[in-house]
Amino acid sequence: MPCLDTDFLIALLRKEKNALEKLRDLADRNEVLSTTPINACELFKGAWLSSSPAAKIRKVTGLLAKLRLLDVPVEACEIFGRASSELIRSGQEIGDIDTLIASIAMANNELVVTKNVAHFQRVRGLLIETW
Fold first, then answer.
1. Do 41 and 57 touch, CB atoms closer than 8 A?
2. pLDDT value at position 1?
3. Helix H or strand E encompassing 41
4. Predicted TM-score (pTM) of this structure
5. Mean pLDDT confidence for 45-63
């Protein structure tokens, strides 16, 4: 099952052609679409920083209502600790936000749909699908 990263969700909100095409592809595969609470937080942050927060918040809320919000089990926390330490030791840090997103997706047995392959491919064991 695909976990949608923030870059993809923003592109959907903007109705970008390539994101809409990828969404159709996922729908054709009967995929249950999800995202993490971290991605939801990023979307709301962007909405609040926009020039029209009320309208953007409505759009974000509407989009999130169509997605499954993944749980954050203790396993995700353990994966985060392992992945973070591996990335730090190798000098390949990607930041806590992306590491958390990856960890939550992995704990829920989901792949991440993102254009940010350069960051996410550094997390050992994470499945990625680009768009």
1. no
2. 83
3. helix 37-49
4. 0.93
5. 97
What is the C-alpha separation between 37 and 96, in angstroms, rounded?
14
Pairing mode, strands 68-69 and 34-35: parallel
Task: Give the Cα separation of 123 and 99 in Å (integer).
Answer: 8
Q: In what order do the strands lie in the sheet with 111-113?
A: 68-69, 34-35, 2-4, 111-113, 128-129
Q: Token digits for 96?
A: 């806590």
Helix (H, G, I), strand (E, B) or coil at 14: coil
* Tokens read off for 112: 């991440």
Domains of the chain, first to last: 2-129 (3.40.50.1010)
Partners of residue 69 on adjacent β-strands: 35
